[in-house]
Amino acid sequence: MSTLRDLRESSESAVRRRETLLVAAVLLALLAIFFWRAVFLGEKLLPADIVYTDPLYYCYAPAEFTKPHNILLYDQAYQFYPWRVYVSRALREGFLPLWDPYIYCGTPLLARDQPALFYPLNILSYAFSPPDAVLLTALARLLIAGLSTYWFVRMIGGGRFGALLSAVSFTFSGFMIVWMGHPHSNVAAWLPTLFLAIEWLSRRNGVPQVVLVAVTVAVQLTGGHAETALYTLTAGGLYHLFRVAILWHSERRVRLALMRLLSFGAAAALGLALAAVQVLPFWEWLQGSAEFLLRSGSESLQVMRPGPKYMLAGLLPAVLPNIFGNPTWPGEYKSFLPGWNFVEQTVYVGILGLSLAASALFVRGRRNRVLFFVGLGLVALGAALRLPVFDWVNYLPLFDIASPGRFRLVYTFCMCVLVGVGAQGIVNGATRGPATRLLIRLLVGIVLAAVCAVLIGGWILSTLGVGFPVTGIWQLSDDLVAQAFHFSNLRMYWPVLVALSGILVLVLYLRQVLSQKMVKGILALLVIADMFAFGMNYHGTIREEHIFPETPALQFVKSDQGIYRIVGTNVDVMPNTSVVHELYDVRGLDFPSHRYLEFCEAIGGQDWLGYGILFSVQLQPRLLGLLNVKYVLTCSRPGAKGLRDLRLLYVDRDINVYENLQCLPRSFIVHRARVCEDSEDILETLRDPEFDLLSEIILEKPLPVGFVAPPGDVAQAGTEITRYDPNHVTIGVATEANGWLFLSDSYNPDWKAYVDGDETEIYRADYAFRAVYLEPGQHVVDFVYAPGSFKVGYTVSLLALLSMLVTLVAHWRISRLERGNASDENASA
Fold it and tell me: Please, is 593 exposed, middle or buried when counting C-beta atoms within 10 Å of its C-beta (0-12, 13-18, 19+)?
């Protein structure tokens, strides 16, 4: 009997493998068509055409460039791609880039989470060139999302046809496509895998199941977007509680239910331990970031709370995804709904998908699961839109500092699961007729809902000032809105055409004009066409030679082989561009530390979009000089005050390159220090033109015992930076008197300093930078970035990985031994 069981299991495994390969082939074929320009023409799946809106690059744009394909993807061009380039370059040079020296006078890299240094799929970014890795990682994420959705729906009884529709719907859903180039999708891609692993755990409470859940949890936590992981793991935890409740209700075995809960808890703890190498540094960094302080304010949720019209408007894109405009349409993009944009408002799962998901409520069987996904999906959507009552979720701990809009992912997945359950009712012989009639009614209702969406959308826009006065026929005061809402605009109304086509096909199916096989094929094609119409044109491509070209202005600056920093004014040179070109910038496009942000604001910088710092043309060269800013790149003429300390060196069409005559060295020795603990006083003193930045610094701790400033003038001490790596800086110093080695790199408590090999204290100097006390003589000073959270996290992750591997090997050996004993017993019998 054991042999027969083994043969049966082997045969079933072979069937599952063939089915997996077939579904994977279908998904890969669809993905190849979806990204055909990148796959077949060799163009790069990167929105780098956005940089040609910057004066630095504008004159060097490709001949065919008129406007960016999708202006909303600037994060991908200015944040995620530069990080990919930097990490890939660092690993090829043989070091782990824990620190990013190119922005904000230096800032943590690993700890910022979004670079996702340890995310498994980012191995592709390190093995291939960064432009190629963008496409490869996108294909890998979407394939994982589709395959795991397929098998989860199959496992809960969706059938092959329903599971395939679910897989296509989720793979090409609004959330997965619009966030595809963001770290959000790193996490979102594994949500179906988490549900699949939990379902498997609820059926077989064994070691492999616990390990699979743990690995899935760890992958999501290393994906680079902690708040999305918060939502996915919460949804998974609720599903596990639901499965345990069903198990207890059917079998009334308290011990078994408790074991399932403990197994999931152990898996979650193991997953957290596996991801500790990234989670612990992120948590440490988060507490010192300016964004965390802003979000943790007592009034932050109230400030972000939308009004009733916005709540209602948030439902409309579920039926007509382009109802408030689309960034890929001709002309300048401006969301018709002020305060929102296309990315944040997308909840589209397909017009047929929405109808099939609704029909799942009326499909016999799997009733409890259907109600769970309906309930979870509605709660998630309500919380995302901050509807009354549902909004209470957003005030729970952790959720109160996260973005409620990420709940759209949970809603999307729930709807896509229900698509498969609803589709199964259409092909089920026993319920085919009633299910088909129901679906026809739902599709008719969807068409009517689309008409209502247009009416409601028009009313909302008119009350918000966009203009929708009605005199008989629609008359729009805004030409762009008028063109968008015109009934000939297929880019607005294609979902209605898909719905009408679905109604026609189902009517013919009821009248037995079309066979079941034909209807399944046509419905699948309609779902594919619907989702392709939504997202196929969303992501543009570009030729590799046009990605961040090195313009003459950049070549001129880089011809200076010294150590210095640059600054651009406004968005003439976007922050983070410097990372690609290996230039050091005082600005950045990421969440700065609150200290560094306050310093920059005090010297004329400004917070930009909540996660960037910009400087206007009203520059303060003296204080920028303290930051080692030697070159200013601008297309504007700096203010008269700034021009006194700036010298024009080079003109590259629209960009002028100025030298800052007030630039101070990256490191220098000062022999006087004053102590001040009041932040306002420190910043006010630094702004005082009479304060000599080169000869005195401001500290916030008592001076060393016995320190006495040398009397009179002291010969200028010599300093030389002999090594300047991201994680390690070495400076040679020769000084005739005791003093302070000042380094204009941003202060961080995880940096360690060693003077002639002995560790010494790093003082926070001039509000946000570093200083080390030195005795007279010649010294070698080493600054080493050694975050304790990384060391602890690395150790915890390594121990968790080893324990997991040992447990798996032990389980495999025991299972093999048991199978061998069972075979011997059967043979002897």
Answer: buried
